[in-house]
Every structure is written in C-alpha cells, then in structure tokens.
Amino acid sequence: MSAHNSRNDSLPYPDGDFFAFESLLAEHELARLNSIREWLEAEVRPIARDFWNRSEFPVHLIPKVAELDLISPVRRQGHSHLFAGMLTAAIHRVDASFGTFFSGHDGLFTGSIELLASAEQQAAWLPEIYALKKTGVFAITEPLAGSDVAGGTQTTAVRHGENWILNGEKRWIGNSTFSDYVIVWAKDVADDQVKGFLVDTKTAGFTATLIENRIALRAVQNADIVLTDVVVPDFFKLAHANSFRDTNKVLKSTRATVGWQAVGLQLAAFDVARKYAVEREQFGKPIAGFQLIQEQLVTMLSNAQASMGMMVRLAQMQDAGTTRNEHSALAKAFVTKCMRESVALGRSILGGNGISVDYEMAKIFCDAEAIYTYEGTYEINTLVAGRAITGVAAFV
C-alpha cells in the first residue's frame, strides 16, 4: 500500500501535505525529491514487507542507491537541509528499515568523516563512501552504556607505536554484519577521552553477531560487536575526534535526521489509516464516515503537520548555522512523541487488521518504537532541552 495508491485526486490534500510545506523547496529540489519517490515506490515498497518479515536486508538495492547519488546531499551536493530532511522523511514513509540504512551510512558514518576526519583522510576515504563502493556504520552504544555513554564508554583504545589497540563491545550497531567499515568510539586510556576510529570489519579480532528476535526495524541487521585486540593504524584514527564533545558535533545533526524519520513514519501511518478508513465498511458505510474515526485521522494529520513545522524551522536554522544541541534534542523528543501517538491511533483504526504486517500498519507501529529510542531517548533529549531553559542539569 503506497502513498501513491492511497491518493484520491478528487481530494484537495492527496499527499497529506496540509500546509504545503513542500512548496518551500526550490523547484529543482522538489523535482529531485519526486523522482526519488518514484524510485522508492518502484523498487523498495514492493519488497519491504517480505524482507522485514524475514529479518533480512535487501543488499541488492545498494548498487541501485549508488546510481541515484543520494549520499551527502548538503555538504557534497549543495542541497538545503530542508531537502535533505524531506528526503529522509520520504524514504522512511516507504520503509523505515531501508531508511535507517540510508541515514546510518549517510548521516552518522559519512557525517563523522566529513566533520571529524582530516583533509588527507577525507581524500582517501570519501570517494568510495559517496559512491557506496564502501559502506559504513557508527558504533557508540555498548551493552552497559546507552544514555550515559559520554562518561560510561568501556571500550578502550591504547596507543602502541604507530597503531592503536581496541578492546571492548558495542551493541545495536545496524547493518554491521555486512558493512565494510565501522566507526568505533573508544576511550583512550592515556587521557580518558573518547576518540573515533575507522575500523575495517575484516580486521582480525573484529566480530559482529546479529541480534535475533527484534520487533522493530527487522530488516536492519543490528549486531553485537566484539573487539579483541583489534589493531588500527594511526592514520585510521579520526584526526578531529578527540573527545565526546567532538562526537556531539555529529549527533547534533543526526538527532535532527531522526526527527525527519519520525515525520516519515507518521505520514506512512496516515497513508495506511486513511485508505483503510475509506475502503473498510462497517454498519453499512465506510468507517471514514464515523465521527470518531475522522477525529483520529485528523489527530494523526495534526501530529504530522506540527512535527513537519518544527522540523522545517530546524532545517532553516541549520542552513543559517544557528542550531544548538538543545534545538535538535527538543525536536527529536517532540516529533517522536507525536509519532508514537499517531502510529497507535493508526493501529486502532485498522482494528484487528492493525496487528497484521499484511496491512503494513503493524510494521509501521513496531518500527516507530526503535525510532522513539535511538539517537537519544525521549527522556534524555527532554532533559537536554530542560537544561537549556533552566540552566540546571537534571542528569550528569
């Protein structure tokens, strides 16, 4: 069930863009976005549910994504942050697992190298990364360090001559079972600072084991990583990744990306719920004719439009270079909270069919739970914003 298939051209808002936010895009950006949407509908949507059910990632699509030339739309291609955000939302509106691969490689991984590598490192690594000849992921979360990873990182890095020796564990690292590289964040035992390293997944002592029995983003190959005396040449230590403050330069941007992901999930839920409400009949008429169903649909749309409005303003601030960590934190917290309510309403509208992946809403509902949690939990992001408005920290 696609956004395209859920359209009714007799309606004034066939795509749920109630306040015409997409009209803020430059004409060439909107044309580019629509061409990518057509590709997503043709290539990703038809296979997404099957791969999600089987907990497998459609790696055969990676070369096709390379042909679209999507990586680093802002820094490399000169697009606006608004375009990049709406692109993220469009991908997640079709499939959040595929979208998580894209955002992980483009934002967390590529973004780390763009922001924190030296010019020499960028010249050596980025061409193949932009072309998706090499794929990568970002590894910071650990089995015993999530929200407190800034001070709780237990993975260690020891300088030994011209190399670094890494030891430790990482958890929930998406698609690290098949990626070429992982950026590993480890604490330098010499100065107790968290630093970043580009690790080839073929390096001796590196293992990635798929985490089984997950209910969300099932096509994403989340893994447990173990590093046992992994030797990393000094050139592969990111030159400007020398403290957790440096790591935050990446996370500030990617928290905004997650906000756009949540917009995409809300629109996906709205697509499915509206189509179902118009087609499903109860008591002799479509359930869309009942007041409570209309109220639920309007609440879903309101959440999506409020979320879009906040994300559009955040994108404008990014383009102006005026964002701070608390802006991204507040946006991620608010938009994912709206998302959680919206997907629950959508599941309710579908009744019993809402728990069947065949109707897509169950997949959207489950995927939303992962997005609600990663890139900082709702609680932590709320407290980051709370610290900004009170001057008092409620967490260490």
Structural account:
There is one protein chain. The protein is of the alpha+beta class and 396 residues long. It folds into 3 domains: 21-130, Butyryl-Coa Dehydrogenase, subunit A, domain 1, CATH 1.10.540.10; 136-243, Beta Barrel (Butyryl-CoA Dehydrogenase, subunit A, domain 2), CATH 2.40.110.10; 245-390, Butyryl-CoA Dehydrogenase, subunit A, domain 3 (Up-down Bundle). The chain contains 11 helices and 9 strands. It has helices at 27-54, 62-68, 81-94, 96-116, 119-130, 149-152, 244-279, 291-320, 325-349, 361-373, 378-390; strands spanning 136-139, 156-160, 163-173, 181-188, 193-200, 206-210, 223-233, 281-282, 285-286. The strands form 2 sheets. Strands 1, 2, 3, 4, 5, 6 and 7 form a 7-stranded mixed beta sheet that branches. It has a two-stranded antiparallel sheet with strand order 8-9. A hairpin with a 2-residue loop joins strand 8 and strand 9. Helix 4 packs antiparallel against helix 5, helix 7 packs parallel to helix 9 and helix 9 packs across helix 11 (378-390). The longest helix is centred in the middle third of the chain and has 36 residues, at 244-279. It is globular. It starts with 26 loop residues before the first helix and ends in a 6-residue tail after the last helix.
